[in-house]
Each structure stands twice: as C-alpha cells, then as structure tokens.
Amino acid sequence: MNSMVCCQNPEALSNADSPFTKIVALEFYDGPTGGILQCETCHTVYQFDMLDWDDHHRVRIFRLRVLPESSWERSLQALEKAEPPPRWPVWVPCKWPDDARAEANTKLSKILNQAKPAELVVAWLGYGERILAARKFPPKELDSEPAWLSVDDKSKFRDWFPLLGLSKEKTNASAMEKNGGNADREKERQEALRQFQNLADASQFKSEGPYPTRDELHGRP
Predict the structure, then answer these.
(1) Which among 78, 97, 187, 210 is placed 20 to 30 Å from 156, CA to CA?
(2) Alpha-carbon gap, residue 77 to 41, rounded angstroms
C-alpha cells in the first residue's frame, strides 16, 4: 500500500483504496454501520458510526473517533468468544455462547468510552474497500450529530454528501463504475457476505432479552 494513503492525510484518501483494512462491524445493516477499525498505515484505531448513506446503501458516510492504541487488541480480546473467528478486511461477530455477548458488551463499552471527540469524516463504498472522500471537521460540529440509524425522522440530519464534495444522486453510479475493475475484490466481498449469512441462518443463538441500545453500549445515561 502507498504509505501516503493514510488516515492522517485525508486529502490523499479521495478515490483511493481504503487504508482501513481491518474493520470489526459491531453494528450491521446491509454492511457495516458502526464498530471499530484500524488504519493499516499508521495503526491508529477508531470507533466509527454512520451519519448518512445513499439510496442504494452502497455509499456510506462515517464519523471516526480516535481510540487509545491498545484498544485494538483489547477489543479483539473482548470478542474472543464470538463466531465466526476474525476474518479481514471485515469481521462481523454474530454468534455467541451463553452469556458471552453481555460480557463482551461490558468490555467494549469501557473501550469505546475512551474515544476522543470525532474530527474525521469519511465516505466509503460498499464494505469499506474504497474511500471516496474524507475531510476533517471541528469536533463541536460532529459531536451533536445523531447516528443515521438512531433517529427515524431523517429531516433532523444534515446532508453530508455535499459537505464532502459528493452528490448523493450521482455518487452511487460513479462509484460503481470506478469499482468495476476491482472484480476479484467484489467477489471476495460477496463470498464473505454469503458465509456470514450461512452462519447467521445456522446459528442457534437466541437473545434472552433485548439487545443493548447505542447509549447503553457506550455507557451513556
């Protein structure tokens, strides 16, 4: 990978292969919507959540909060009982024995509570294989923004596409065209999705109660 393609240089991320080659999808809807990721170039660890997406759910815009360096290994340890085992570039832990999910959520909550205020916003294609745009914003501008799936009334959201120099109407078609030469990677993504779906279908896990809300997971009152 080109060493200049790094989260520390947002200008170099426009229409570039993603430096985020390890993504743990803790939240998932037709693809990652939140979780933890790591930059392959500088090894910075982030908590991420989704601010916007296009009509086809292929182009997604995320807010990134820096986590302590040790957070990556601590997160993997917290998720060590999850199945399937880690698989990169995107891992979706979806099957849990007994009370392991509650224990993992407690550990993850402590990790995510250490995140710094967000500054970086990125738009990526699909499962994160390509970055379409990236830009830094003042933390105060991002802190009050709700995550996309946390509020039903979408009129409360800003349109993040033009803020990143993108058009929601045109981005999906152009992104798919630019990704057309990456057929092998797209096949790998489809195969990973198929395996994830098979594991989910075969899982015998049933929650004994409701899943924690976003606020509960992050330990907010």
Answers:
(1) 210
(2) 22
Per-residue pLDDT of the chain (221 residues; tens, 9 = 90+): 445 699 999 999 999 999 999 999 999 999 999 999 999 999 999 999 999 999 889 999 999 999 999 999 999 999 999 999 999 999 999 888 888 989 999 999 999 999 999 999 999 998 999 999 999 999 999 998 999 999 888 887 899 999 999 998 776 565 456 555 455 555 555 565 566 555 555 544 444 444 445 455 445 55
- Asked, for residue 5, whether it belongs to a domain, the answer is no
Range of the domain at 100: 10-217
Q: Give ∠ CA 135-136-140 in degrees, rounded to 5.
A: 135
Assess if residue 204 is contained within a domain.
yes
Pairs from 208-215 (Cβ < 8 Å, separation ≥ 24):
212/105, 214/34, 214/49, 214/147, 214/150
The verdict on residue 161 lying in a domain is: yes
What whole-number distance in Å separates Cα of residue 104 and Cα of residue 211? Answer: 12
